[in-house]
Model the fold of this input.
Amino acid sequence: MANPNVSSAMIELAGNGTALQVRVGYFGYCLTVGAATFCSTDADSLAALLQGIGWSDPLNLLYVAKSFRDNTIFSGLIFICIILGAFCVALLSTFPNEHTEQGFDSDSERVVKPFPSRTVSRLALFLVLAASIFALIAALWQHLSSAATSTMVGTLMYGTVSGQTGTGAMALGWVGTALLVVVMIGLLIMILSIRVLEAIID
Done:
């Protein structure tokens, strides 16, 4: 059974303080009080700002946000995905373009679509596969950790604090992962198709 005195004390603390909204991102925090919004890369500076202008944070939401960002959020996988994706795009840009050549008849032309290098194609596939795996891990990590932390904080604070997972951040994470998977599937189909065509020609 929950101790009713604890929940009453939490509700009383929340009632005596200022209604705060704290947003946590990969690179900083945003604090909203009424119509005013303050953003910083350091939670301590936001806490000092609150104290300086006479507002209070009785439930230590900034400390909770700082702990969540320090212990849960990790942006390294996102940067790895971006780097691998950039290398993959660079390799794809080396694929030969179609061009026209003189046909057997001097009055005709034919369109030639040369096959890309097998080595470059496989390397691009490997890079986008690795990027897809890292993106999937990052999206799952971000989604599950945010949802779990929001639920846990709301429970431990006896409903005086509500947490939400950013819809925009989740959408960007999963859409980016889906695009990488589509590129990976496209490259795989291309490589297999070229292999089949070469086998038929030989």
